[in-house]
Amino acid sequence: xxxxxxxxxxxxxxxxxxxxxxxxxxxxxxxxxxxxxxxxxxxxxxxxxxxxxxxxxxxxxxxxxxxxxxxxxxxxxxxxxxxxxxxxxxxxxxxxxxxxxxxxxxxxxxxxxxxxxxxxxxxxxxxxxxxxxxxxxxxxxxxxxxxxxxxxxxxxxxxxxxxxxxxxxxxxxxxxxxxxxxxxx
Length: 185
Ligand SMILES: [Fe+2]
Description:
- By secondary structure, the protein is of the alpha+beta class.
- It has a single domain, classed as Jelly Rolls.
- The chain has two helices and eleven strands; from the N terminus they run H-H-E-E-E-E-E-E-E-E-E-E-E.
- It has a five-stranded antiparallel sheet, covered by helices on one side.
- Helix 1 (about 5-20) runs antiparallel to helix 2 (about 25-40).
- The longest helix is centred in the first third of the chain and has 16 residues, at about 25-40.
- Bound molecules: fe (ii) ion.
- Fe (ii) ion (FE2) binds near residues 86, 88 and 141.
């Protein structure tokens, strides 16, 4: 597929977000555009977007809109690296540029001291595939790559509405609120 680029993707997503409307629909439209970008011939990201860290998974800023309404990051996982277990307070889109990304899903059972995280499914996203989520989707998951696999690079677009999100302790199920997005560190 030809004729699409990172700059055009950013411009199209800027138009989408500026138009306002339903976040679930915006996420779906941004996902279709991201699929087009990922399946475009040629280089999409620059070398500085592909930096990795031996200690933890990396998120490299690609673009933040001037109105701070959405952000685009390149996510890089070395083998054995994972995100924290988290949910989403906002809408977003992810697509795989290189490798196969594993998504381990969880369900929170019980509440307070009785809360317990239970594994609840697994998805593997391959190169060129995309997925989106809305602000009200009940997703708790972690994303990463087992030791024996190849590194993964993903492109992630997230809305910025300032809703914050939760991260979860895998042993106790206790959740901790984090203001801002997953990549505000
Ligand atoms: Fe996530």
